[in-house]
Structures are given as structure tokens and as C-alpha cells.
């Protein structure tokens, strides 16, 4: 029977374990977080992901409501019906990063406030104006009616929010740069005085979205629980410490023992272990990319799979970021892991990445693949997965004796699409 729990109806789980995996002195924060599935009836397989529904920090919610000058109990219309402003900003909308839609909507406020002729006057500048060979000096008394004769409108300085909005709305790159690292406390600091009501504000926000995490456990090995490996996103923006929405929630607001953490399963149809337990598997998963491979190794051990297992892992330093070091070393010792290659990118003078070690072992990788082996990649999509992909093609050229085009076709068509043995879980 299908479980009743879903993204729309998440299960309230208890976080039973939540600790930092990194070694002392590491500049990364990668957490191991365990969720109890209790009597939910939720099931999963190695390769699946877990959806986590975050809650925004109450400090941020309070500060944004303060910046709006609104009452937290004001009722607002939302996609979830009529709710208090506080609930809307806590659980229904994303406020930790400002969006384009909100900034663009400021234009309507400016228009509806009467256009440029009625902009608020912040100050008039003292001006020195050359008139023929004579200099004309004037200083403002502070009275609205005080203009030097003949120069009245020239030295009116309009509300900087208006000129800021004009520069942002006419230049997409400037808008993108402005939004990078800004939340609504920052943006309301610039525009909040333009008469934005609680409802105006909520109408422009993005709906709060759950985030997915590759499950780092096998249900046969860790029954009744789901384990995650979470890279916490922390940065500074506009002089304040900020976090990613969900990673900040998992790191700072759900200590061990917290219940009511809303989760759901996101099953995969493609990122699965070979049904034939005798098949070899190669796993490439630097950083948090190790997560599903911890699950795979647990599953291969639980299944007593006869196929060989090869893991390529890497991160900054062995001392700081060798995630699950003891477990990985135990798998080498008990023979679950046949081969282990570790790429530390910030230890020596040169970067060592997983694909460099793949290239070094190209002939053996080719042997495993030629023998029907599976090739898995998990982790960073934008750089690592692309480089690993081209390295795999190069290995087929160099060690499989293929022409470049044939190698590309073999990797992208035969392995990936026809035989489904080159599988990726990248983000
Ligand atoms: C299938 C799948 C599996 C995944 N598995 C994992 C996993 O196992 N482990 C894992 O850790 N993640 C995983 N992810 C990523 C995860 O879903 C989230 O995207 C990630 O944790 C960030 O979520 P967040 O809510 O904390 O950050 P968000 O609130 O979404 O914020 C991230 C954003 O913050 C902004 N940002 C980041 N750094 C800065 C900076 N220095 N200055 C300004 N802005 C910045 C960027 O706009 C960035 O896009 C997976 C994703 C997918 C799709
Ligand atoms: N979509 C999202 O919202 C989101 C959110 C969080 C994380 N992510 C992605 O998830 C990734 C995982 O983060 P993480 O901290 O666990 O690990 P990571 O940043 O991927 O870093 C892991 C290792 O990969 C190395 N690396 C960098 N570029 C590489 C390349 N081109 N090829 C191979 N290796 C490379 C890093 O080295 P150096 O750092 O020394 O170069 C580091 O040693 C992030 O890179 C990020 O792109 C996405």
C-alpha cells in the first residue's frame, strides 16, 4: 500500500542524531542527520532522496515583520488560505533571499504614489553656481518653500530608493548583483518606507519549497531511520551572517530530539544499484556526493553482493573533510570496498580532484566498464560532474581504443541511455 505521506502531506519525524562530520579546524560544516521513521510506514531504497520541509528562523520572521512595520497577527491571503503574517513568513513563503518579483513590484508603488513629481524630498543640496564670471552662493534654510530664485527644481535630491529602483529595474545584471546575498531585511531597508502593506509583500514572495537530500543509509542496514549528509550553506551578506533556508534549519534549529521535522520520500527510478549482484560498481562522489554511496555500500554489504565496489571520494583535506572515515576504512578492511581512491584538493600545492585519480587509473576503470560494470556520479553538477563526464569519455578513447565521437556515443548513448549503467545524482 502506498504511504499516505507526501510533499503535500509530510510526515513529522524526530531527529535522533545531528552532528558535524568534519574534523577539528575544518572550515566546512557537513552534518550527519538521522530521522526516525517511527510508525509512519514510510519505506525507501538505497538511491532515493528525502524531502525536508524547512521552517524559517523566528528571528528573521520577526525582523522582517518589524521592517514592514506590520502586526504579526495581521491576516493575509495565501495559497494556503487566510493565515497570520507570522505563519505566512515562517512556513508558507521564502524570505531568507529576496526575489526579482518583489523588487520589480516596487515600481507599482512608485507609480501609484503619483510618479516622480511627488517623490519625497530628502534634502536640497547647497550649490555653487557659476554665473558669468560671478559665483552665486546659496544655502538651504531647510524649509520646503526655500529655493534660490530661478534654480528651484534643479537641486532637489529625490528619495534614493527611487534612483536605486530605476537603476535595478533597467539593468538585469545590476538587479542580480543587488539580490545576491540580500534577504528581505536588506531590501525592506531600502524600499520599506514606500508604503508596502503586509498583503502587498506576501503577494510577491516565492512559495516555500522543500529541499531534497540523497539518502545516506540503506533501510536493510539502518531499519526505521533515514540518514542524510548535509553540507551547511553559511555566508555573509550585507554584514550579517546568513544561511541556506533548509541547511540553516537543520544545523541551527533541529537539535537531537526535535520532533515535528517534516519529511517525505522522493523515490528514484534511475539511480539504483544493479539487480545483478555480481556486477561491479564504480562510485564517484566527492563532498556530500558520498551520501548515496554510503547507502550503496551498506546495501551491497547487506545483500552480500559478489560484484566489486570502487569508491572515488575527495574534499578539501584528509584531516578536515574525510567524511565517514572510520566506516570507509572498515569497508576497506572487511573487503566491502575493493578499491578506494581519495582526492584532497587543498593539501598540496596542486589541486587533486576525483577525475585526476580516475585518469590515473584509466586502464583499470576501462576493464571494469568493459566487463559490464556500472558507473555512478553524485555531487556538484556544475563543475565536478562535467569534468568527470569528459574524463570518462577520455578513458574510453585512451583505453577502450575508440575514436572521440564513438567514445562520446558509447558513454552518452550506450552506457547512459541503452544500458542504464552510467547513472548520476547531481545537484
Ligand atoms: C536530488 C538532490 C539531492 C541532493 N542531495 C544533497 C545531499 O545529499 N546533501 C546536500 O548537502 N545537498 C544535497 N542537495 C542540495 C539540497 O537540496 C539543497 O539545495 C542545499 O542543501 C541548499 O539548500 P538550502 O535550503 O540550505 O539553501 P537555499 O536557501 O536554497 O540557498 C542556497 C542558495 O544560497 C545562495 N548562496 C550560497 N552561498 C552564497 C553566498 N556566499 N553569498 C550569497 N548567496 C549565497 C545561492 O543563491 C544558493 O543557490 C541535493 C539536491 C538534489 C536536487
Ligand atoms: N543547488 C544547490 O542549491 C546546492 C546547494 C549546496 C551545494 N550544492 C552543490 O553541492 C556541492 C557539494 O558541496 P560540498 O561542500 O559537499 O562539496 P564540493 O563543493 O563539491 O567540494 C568537494 C570537493 O570537490 C572539489 N571540486 C571542486 N571543483 C571540482 C571539479 N571541477 N571537479 C572535481 N572536484 C571538484 C572541491 O575542491 P575545491 O573546493 O578545493 O576546488 C572539493 O575538494 C557544491 O559544490 C555545490 O555546487 C548545490
Describe this protein's structure:
- This protein is α+β, with helices and mostly antiparallel strands and 427 residues long.
- It has 15 helices and 21 strands.
- A six-stranded antiparallel β-sheet has the order 12-3-16-1-2-13, covered by helices on one side. Strands 19-18-17-20-21 form a five-stranded parallel β-sheet, with helices on both faces.
- Helix 12 (354-360) runs parallel beside helix 14.
- It is elongated and about 90 Å long.
- The two termini are 31 Å apart.
- The chain binds flavin-adenine dinucleotide and NADP nicotinamide-adenine-dinucleotide phosphate.
- NADP nicotinamide-adenine-dinucleotide phosphate (NAP) binds next to strand 18, helix 12 and helix 14.
Short structural description:
The chain has 427 residues and is an alpha+beta fold. It has helices at 58-68, 85-92, 100-112, 160-169, 172-179, 184-191, 198-204, 245-252, 291-303, 318-321, 325-333, 354-360, 362-370, 384-400, 404-418; strands at 11-20, 30-36, 49-53, 75-78, 81-84, 93-94, 121-124, 127-131, 134-138, 156-158, 206-207, 211-214, 225-231, 234-237, 240-243, 261-266, 281-284, 309-315, 339-344, 374-379, 422-426. Helix 1 crosses helix 2 and helix 13 packs across helix 14 (384-400).
Amino acid at each position: 500500500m502506498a504511504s499516505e505521506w507526501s510533499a503535500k502531506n509530510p510526515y513529522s519525524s524526530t531527529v535522533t542524531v545531528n552532528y558535524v562530520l568534519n574534523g577539528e579546524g575544518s572550515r566546512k560544516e557537513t552534518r550527519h542527520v538521522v530521522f526516525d521513521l517511527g510508525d509512519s510506514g514510510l519505506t525507501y531504497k538505497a538511491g532515493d532522496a528525502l524531502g525536508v520541509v524547512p521552517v524559517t528562523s523566528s528571528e528573521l520572521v520577526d525582523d522582517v515583520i518589524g521592517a514592514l512595520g506590520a502586526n504579526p497577527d495581521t491576516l493575509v491571503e495565501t495559497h494556503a488560505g487566510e493565515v497570520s503574517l507570522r505563519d505566512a513568513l515562517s512556513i508558507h513563503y521564502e524570505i531568507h533571499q529576496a526575489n526579482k518579483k518583489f523588487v520589480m513590484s516596487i515600481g507599482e508603488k512608485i507609480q501609484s504614489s503619483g510618479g516622480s513629481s511627488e517623490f519625497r524630498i530628502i534634502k536640497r543640496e547647497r550649490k555653487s553656481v557659476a554665473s558669468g564670471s560671478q559665483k552665486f552662493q546659496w544655502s538651504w534654510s531647510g524649509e520646503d518653500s526655500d529655493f534660490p530664485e530661478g534654480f528651484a527644481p534643479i537641486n532637489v535630491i529625490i528619495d534614493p530608493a527611487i534612483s536605486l529602483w530605476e537603476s535595478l529595474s533597467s539593468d538585469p545584471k545590476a538587479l542580480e548583483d543587488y539580490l545576491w546575498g540580500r534577504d528581505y531585511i536588506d531590501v525592506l531597508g531600502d524600499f520599506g518606507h514606500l508604503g508596502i502593506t503586509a498583503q502587498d509583500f506576501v503577494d510577491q514572495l516565492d512559495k516555500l519549497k522543500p529541499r531534497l537530500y540523497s539518502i545516506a543509509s540503506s533501510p536493510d542496514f539502518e531499519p526505521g531511520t533515514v540518514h542524510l549528509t548535509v553540507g551547511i550553506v553559511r555566508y555573509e551578506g550585507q554584514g550579517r551572517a546568513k544561511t541556506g533556508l533548509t541547511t540553516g534549519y537543520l544545523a541551527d534549529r533541529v537539535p537531537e530530539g526535535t520532533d515535528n521535522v517534516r519529511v517525505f520520500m522522493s523515490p528514484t527510478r534511475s539511480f539504483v544499484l544493479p539487480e545483478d549482484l555480481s556486477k561491479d560498481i564504480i562510485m564517484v562522489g566527492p563532498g556530500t556526493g558520498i551520501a548515496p554511496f554510503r547507502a550503496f555500500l551498506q546495501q551491497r554489504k547487506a545483500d552480500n553482493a559478489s560484484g566489486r565496489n570502487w569508491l572515488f571520494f575527495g574534499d578539501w583535506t584528509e584531516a578536515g573533510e574525510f567524511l565517514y572515515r572510520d566506516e570507509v576504512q572498515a569497508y576497506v578492511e572487511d573487503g566491502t570496498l575493493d578499491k578506494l581512491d581519495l582526492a584532497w584538493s587543498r593539501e598540496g600545492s596542486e589541486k587533486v580532484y576525483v577525475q585526476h585519480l580516475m585518469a590515473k587509473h584509466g586502464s583499470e576503470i576501462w576493464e571494469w566498464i568493459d566487463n559490464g560494470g556500472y558507473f555512478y556520479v553524485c555531487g556538484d553538477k556544475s563543475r565536478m560532474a562535467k569534468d568527470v563526464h569528459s574524463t570518462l569519455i577520455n578513458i574510453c578513447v585512451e583505453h577502450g581504443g575508440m575514436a572521440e565521437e564513438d567514445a562520446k556515443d558509447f558513454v552518452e548513448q550506450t552506457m547512459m541511455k541503452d544500458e542504464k549503467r552510467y547513472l548520476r545524482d547531481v545537484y
